Amino acid sequence: MTLTATFLTERTILSSQNDDVSAINTAALNIFPDPPRLPAFNVEFKVGCPIMLLRNIASKDGLCNGTKLMVSRCNTRIIEAQILTGEKCGNLVFIPRISLTSSSSEMPFRMTRRQFPVRLAYALTINKSQGQSVKFVGVDLRTPVFSHGQVYVALSRCTSFDRISVLLPNDKPDSTTNIVYTEILL
After folding, report:
1. Among 19, 69, 106, 120, which one is least packed by beta carbons within 10 Å?
2. Would the pLDDT of 181 be above 80?
3. Which strands sit side by side in the sheet containing 68-74, from one edge to the other?
4. Residue range 120-139: mean pLDDT, rounded
5. Residue 156, by phi and psi: left (phi above 0), alpha (psi -120 to 50) or beta?
6. Which ranges of 2-87 would DSSP assign to H, the alpha helix?
7. Which SS3 state, helix, strand or coil, does residue 33 take?
């Protein structure tokens, strides 16, 4: 299966907590094989994967916190990606590693490290999905939402009610979770 910008723009999975989003993103990443002739990256994404920008880098170029992109190429110091959302949709951009400094008051020193300000984005938190409209939406409600307003936001991301899938909590473990993710992403 070939992932395209249109395919990734039309689909998303929403969840209420970051831990669930990370688990879904990891499960989704494992569904897709590595690109041919390219080794797996040390970071947690591959060429063709959707990512979300976590910092404002260049607002006028469309590189804002929450921008969804698709990885085109990846290097140790820069990511080449195509913007999937907003006014600059379709533009090819470069995302550098940036210095991030911890703001934790628990440590007696400030720690700085260089990293890419991105996150894998097969799944997003409901809060990060605000303002987006997609063709297919899966909503993971196995962990309760903070308020009924979050459910409204999650369900209103889809352009048609008949293209929404909801994963509800189940008292007994089963294997349907991966099936639901696969149906939404495929």
Report:
1. 106
2. no
3. 92-96, 78-83, 68-74, 50-53, 118-120
4. 87
5. alpha
6. 5-9, 18-31
7. coil
Say if CB 79 and CB 42 are below 8 A apart: no
| Vertex 155 angle, CA 20 and 62, to 5° | 75
Cα separation, 82 vs 58, whole angstroms: 15
Torsion of Cα atoms, 66 then 67 then 72 then 73, to 10°: -50
* Residue where the block lists tokens 């379709």: 90
Q: How far apart are CA 141 and CA 148, in angstroms?
A: 12
Other Cβ atoms less than 10 A from the Cβ of 122: the count is 25
The token pair at 115 is 């990293």
Give the whole-angstrom CA distance, residue 164 versus residue 183. 11
Determine whether 33 is exposed, middle or buried from the number of CB atoms within 10 Å of its CB (0-12, 13-18, 19+). Answer: exposed
3-state secondary structure of 50: strand
CB 64 within 8 A of CB 88: no
Tell me what the pLDDT averaged over the chain comes to.
81
* DSSP one-letter code for 145: P
* 126 pLDDT higher than 70: yes
C-alpha distances in angstroms, 109 versus 56, 99, 104, 112, 115?
25, 16, 9, 10, 19
